[in-house]
Amino acid sequence: MQYAVLLILFPLIGVIINGFFGRKLPEKVVGWLASLLIGASFVVALSLAVQLAGIPSDVATEPAHGGHADAMHEDVIHAESTHDAGAVAAEELSHDSHEPAATEVHGEVESHEAMVDAHGEAEAQDVHGGCEGCEVSHPSVNVRHSRWLEIPVFTWIHVGDLDLGFTILVDPLSVVMMLVVTGISFLIHIYSIGYMAGDPRFRLFFVYLNLFVFFMLILVSGNSFPVLFIGWEGVGLCSYLLIGFWWGDMSKATAGMKAFIVNRIGDFGMLVAMFLLFHHLGTLTFQGVFEGAAAKWGADIGAPAITAITLMLLMGATGKSAQIPLYVWLPDAMAGPTPVSALIHAATMVTAGVYMIARSSVLFALAPAGMTTVAVVGALTAIFAATIGIKQFDIKKVLAYSTVSQLGYMVMACGVGAFTAGIFHLMTHAFFKALLFLGSGAVIHTMHGALHHVHDHHTDPQDMRNMGGLKKYIPLTYWLFVVATLAIAGIPGFSGFFSKDKILEMAFMMGTAEGLNPGNFLPYALGLIAAVITAFYMFRLVYLTFHGDYKGPKGSAEGLHESPPVMTMPLVVLAFLAVVGGYVGLPRVLSHVNHFENWLYPVFAPANRILDVVAHQVHAIPPGQAFHAFPHPEPWLEWVLIGVSVVAALVGISIAFTMYIKKGLVGEPDEKQAGFGKVLWQKYYIDEVYDALVIRPLIGICRFSWRIIDAAIIDGGMVLGTAKAVHWVGGGLRRVQTGVVSNYALMLVAGVLLVLVLFMFR
Amino acid sequence: MSLWLTAIVFIPTVGALLMLLVPSGNSKALRTTAFMIMLVDFFVSLPLYWAYDPSNASFQFVERASWIETFNIHYYLGLDGISLLLVLLTTFLGPIVVLGSSGITKSLKGYFACMLLLQTGMLGTFLALDLFLFYVFWEVMLIPMYFLIGIWGGIERIYAAVKFFIYTMVGSLLMLVGILWIYFHSGNTFDYTQIMAQATSSGGLFTPQAQLWLFAAFALAFAIKVPMFPFHTWLPDAHVQAPTAGSVILAGVLLKMGTYGFIRFAMPMFPAGVEFFQPLMLTLAVIGIIYGAMVSIVQPDMKKLVAYSSVSHLGFVMLGLFALTPQAVTGAVIQMVNHGLSTGALFLLVGVVYDRRHTRMIKDYGGIAKVMPLYAAVFMIVMLSSVGLPGLNGFIGEFMILVGTYSTSPVAAILGATGVILAAIYLLWMYRRVFFGELVHKENEGLKDLKPAEWASLIPLLIFIVWIGVYPMTFLGKMATSINHFLQNFDFIRPMAGL
Amino acid sequence: MELTIYHYLLLSTILFSLGIIGVLTRRNILIILMSVELMLNSANLLLIAFSHYIQNATGMIFVLFTMTVAAAEVGVGLAIIVTIFRNKETIDVGKMNLLKW
Description:
The complex is a heterotrimer of chains A (762), B (499) and C (101). Chain A is mainly alpha-helical and 762 residues long. In chain A, 67% of the residues lie in helices and 3% in strands. Chain A contains 28 helices and 4 strands. A two-stranded antiparallel sheet of chain A has the order 1-2. Chain A has a two-stranded antiparallel ribbon with strand order 3-4. The N and C termini of chain A lie far apart (93 Å). Chain B is mostly helical and 499 residues long. Chain B is built from 19 helices and 2 strands. Chain B has a two-stranded antiparallel ribbon with strand order 1-2. Chain C has 101 residues and is mainly alpha-helical. In chain C, α1 (5-25) packs antiparallel against α2 (29-53) and α2 packs antiparallel against α3 (58-88). The interface between A and B is large, with 51 and 54 residues.
């Protein structure tokens, strides 16, 4: 497996070759070299995946059909609890069971009955306790399983207890991420060859892109938090460089800077989380941290320390994955070239936060308050960004807010314990959102050409109010775009549907699990409303852009034409993925096996076990009431939930259809904005609020520190004050020097007399 | 007993004398001679890295000879894992600053002579193990630096030079009093190892009360040199007025004298003082980090901005030293080296445009990435290293310091970590205003990109910036034993609960 | 009445005090110079007295030296005074404050 290093090395080779020797190479060579190296990385990732799949999993997978979550817990959890009052549901969570078959045996009925019989919490635990009367032991989690491979490369930092290796971690989760990252990157690299053709800094663009992939792969394949952090900040750097790629325009350079600084605020959270982890656990490798955390806090779930850790990790995620309150950089990041928006700010980098939360699932599972916060932040972001998306006219801005919203979904999924669903949505979103962005790039490219055709340099080629009716000029792009839109809207049969539905289902079930408290359905409700809005604004986008009449400057329509094959071919591939990508994780009611879930099962098994324990511990269960931590819905309920999601999507689409096709509304110009619509159009004035509440006060304090504290008080007062005091005292004392000899003589005598007196009265 | 260390210390002095033989008019010969001397010194010191035995905690390559017998003063040099890196950093920066002096034309002979004498002073300070000898070298450094700023500096150079001199002098005189006190209470010896042996023996050399005062006297001298908040105001003036090479030396090595003084003398000799002052020092360090960064944000002058950022970075070093955990102290030592490389490089880079445009004001630039793309790229890398981007050197130091500090004082670590955000703000904002946007000033259109000499001075720095970031074990491995030895002095100090 | 060492001491103290009073109170530089000589001679007197008293010739030898030096000093002093007078047309010390702060 040592060849896994190549995965990371290939992009680095691209950086070195193009960066140092690329000057002499022609554009085509540079572009294809960069692309093919990423392709090579993809092949490596694929091979890793195949190899990993070849290793038999030693973790029992979930029951195939309609089973309860509890069923699996019964065989993987050996709760060795006693009847001591308040005794924690202490479990030996290490899964020494190698009997996947055993899980199949526990049917839903059987376990259901067991639950019904349970009376009170202690009894409920007994259901899980295979070994009554055994000693209470902390729940220990065995993170490592047969598909968890660590490939050490070199020792990075080793001081005292801090021992960090630069080690590549290959497990089902990282392989999924590697495949998504390299796959999408490969396609977008190729697309960029067409999109960036003729740019004076074409070579640099590919260097940055390769560098990005390099860091992104470090991020997803690191085996410890600090190595993840290398990638984490590295991709932030590339994002900064690429957003400000056309830095001649100061606003673009500013957008890049904003992205980096806002991300830094999130990174601060990551750093603090690492300090806490190291302080409490003495290690920072994933395996060490997760196992240590489970051992330390397993008996003390929701301890302040672990809650603080998860909140700090969440802070990191809100920065990178653009969640409230740190999402503000992502819409501005659209200043970068469109392939960058597609690759970094939609498909890969921004999902790093979701990946990190999913990777730290064990930690989050140990902190219910942290989980709840994650769910709430995600749900709020999903709906908040969606509402802003309604009133945007810049085609990329709509997609940007849609990305923020979709990331909210993923984060929410993690918050409700549906880590698999979150990663699933991450993957499908990568497909369709990359497609949407690249499609919009093709539209912008076309518009640009059209405007160029009539020498119009004032009209904004990204403003949808200048488009319309593009369907007949660029039909291929149109159809590909529609595929992606259907996917994001959640129309059955397209990938987005499966993942979004899964998240909503899990959110709903979390609501039921916690004893029918209406507040628990909040994530589900918000998610559902966001789904309606998503469908609406995406179809609004399609209608405004492709339907109706062309509203560009006169004569420019002749300049509209389809993009070259090098740009459309990746779109076709992505469209294919956007359709079929969801079929790896079909809903329970449609398929016996959910391949995606099975594949990731060993990764999230420890967290799920802890969640199960937590659920029993936190919620007192009334006698006679069945309780499930995160149960799967009954088939009828699942059908209902699916139906509700589909209706939600259709409602959104029909509103858009009514408004923009039937009534033929067009976007109103800037000056006509009014009322709440204006607030949405102005993005709730959040940037202005931040400017007034954070940036200006900070600059004010800085100026005060400099002018008043530093220049006036410390330097002027203390330092120069001392100098002045010396000057003043000296100025007084020199008056003694009269220049008259007699005075000196007098002083001499006085001195002598003084000495005499002192001698006499000693 | 070899004369290896003596050779390293005094090759520059001999070189300074040799400079006298070179005709004053021949600037090329003067530059070459100075460069060659520095280079020779570097190559003489380089094998120390391999010769040094990292498993041995005691001083190595020791040289000891009687100097002033009446007062039991010795010429006593030695090297351990901590000074090893600093000595190498000093000799490494030597040739680089000579290359960075291309803007100097006034009386070159004196200039390079000062530079070489300064080198002797600095190396001597890092290697001296006799308190008296240490004090002599400490003061020897002061004089050439005074002239470098006062003669070859900017417009306000006299003010800055006098301020620098007096400020440093005030501190070092108190230290001299402390040294004499130790002398009279330790059986008339200035010998560091003997004093340490007495200090660590049961009963100890000094009463805790005395240790407080001694620590305070030494700490003031070193705190001014570091410089710690609120003793930092000489630094911006000195940096702004000093010639480029002077700034590089000042930031790269001279400031390390303060932190080195703490780790070598003030802290191990007076552990009770450390225990007493630890909260204060941690507080000042954190204030320094945040305050230095905040003041940097609003600086209109690039050099002043970098100077204030030094206050912030040195705050990290002090935080690490007083956190007293292996990670933090190791991080602090590596951060000393990092700061020398990154900030040294930043000063060189500011010097590059200053030589061309004779202004350091941010507003006089803008969009110059267009005319100087390679310069912009190098500046970017150095800036990122200063910001603490993982994979470059700055991160290693800051991360280890903060991770190690957390166990001692969570509040200090968390507050210190905000410095990471602020660093991004002041450097990126400055970078954006200098390099991005349209070329607004006509004067900047003709700016030439980096010249070969400038490349030659920057590339070695860049190599180490990346090296330390990617594979710091090259350097960390050498100091582990020395740092454990250092930390043994403080075993009795418990972590500060609740802070 | 026998002359004892105390008489010499008293005399020389009186002479010394006269000298001091002269130096402090007079403004004429010549008189100040003469007062200084008076103090010097009081010291000489004491040296001789003690020399006789403890039967040691060193004191007397010193007096010889002192007289020699005093003579030279008067020579230099008078020369300076003459020069000052030529320049400033006064020998009033109150008016000589060139070395004032």
